[in-house]
Design a protein that fits this description.
Layout (H helix, E strand, L loop, with lengths): L27 E2 L8 E8 L2 E11 L2 E4 L7 E6 L12 E10 L13 E5 L26 E6 L15 E7 L2 H6 L16 E2 L16 E3 L2 E3 L8 H11 L2
Antiparallel strand pairs: 1-9, 2-3, 2-5, 3-4, 4-7, 5-6, 6-7, 8-9, 8-11, 9-10, 11-12
Protein name: Peptidase S1 domain-containing protein
Keywords: Disulfide bond, Hydrolase, Protease, Serine protease, Signal, Zymogen
GO molecular function: serine-type endopeptidase activity
Length: about 240
């Protein structure tokens, strides 16, 4: 079955002030290898080391969030437990990091980045690409989607899980992120971001999951509204193909 991918780089979730979309809050462990498009990003930036999620959109390109940049990035594909040497895993370094030219690191608008791998991934039952949505395709409020990643599972702890976690989330009306007086996403831009989450149940994505896809039905999004950036994504991939 073709998986539609409405890209939502975990960013515009309704989160308490001070938190960062990227953790799987009130989620559960995913069925091993049920999301073969998922990519784990090991990021080195000077002495600092961090992690992000991403997803494979072609054999040699991973899509993630622009704030997941660093001096050196290694991508792990086909992983469920990132601390184990699973035979399904492929570890590939990143050749090029291409952030969107209008990315604003202060407001995090246009927070999207393509990673060109040093070699093509070998597609198999553990490693597969996910389809991009049509340009300017939108997801209706009320739609149930899911997000996955290896980020923190609680706002109370800094520890991160070794296995892939997932949670179901609802697409909300833009007004929820624009006008919520207690949990406002101050720099929310409805033209490039998506408002997703469940403030009543406390479900969200959190640190470490940034860059992973929000899968809605048969399409992937990221908390950056990926469909808005389809022309840039396709042009960039076409230009850099060998």
């Amino acid at each position: 079955m073709k998986v539609q991918i409405l890209i939502l780089l975990p960013m515009a979730f309704l989160l308490p002030p001070g938190t960062w979309a990227g953790e799987i809050i009130q989620g559960q462990e995913a069925k091993p290898h049920s999301r073969p498009y998922m990519a784990f990003l090991d990021i080195r930036d000077g002495e600092k080391r961090s992690r992000c999620g991403g997803f494979l959109v072609s054999e040699n390109f991973v899509l993630t969030a622009a704030h997941c940049n660093g001096d050196e990035i290694t991508v792990k594909l086909g992983a469920h437990n990132i601390q184990q040497r699973e035979r399904s895993q492929q570890k590939i370094s990143v050749r090029r990091q291409i952030s969107h030219p209008q990315y604003d690191k202060e407001t995090l608008n246009n927070d999207i980045m393509l990673l060109q791998l040093t070699k093509s991934a070998k597609l198999n039952r553990w490693v597969k690409t996910i389809a991009l949505p049509l340009a300017n395709n939108t997801v209706k409020p009320g739609t149930m989607c899911s997000i996955a990643g290896w980020g923190r599972t609680s706002t109370e702890t800094k520890s991160t899980p070794d296995t892939l976690q997932e949670v179901n989330l609802k697409v909300l009306k833009d007004d929820v992120c624009l006008k919520n007086p207690d949990e406002t996403y101050y720099d929310y831009d409805a033209s490039t971001m998506m408002c997703v989450g469940d403030p009543k149940k406390g479900k969200a994505s959190f640190k470490g999951d940034s860059g992973g896809p929000l899968v809605c039905g048969k399409t992937a999004q990221v908390y950056t509204r990926v469909s808005t950036f389809i022309p840039w994504i396709r042009d960039t991939m076409r230009r850099l193909q060998p």
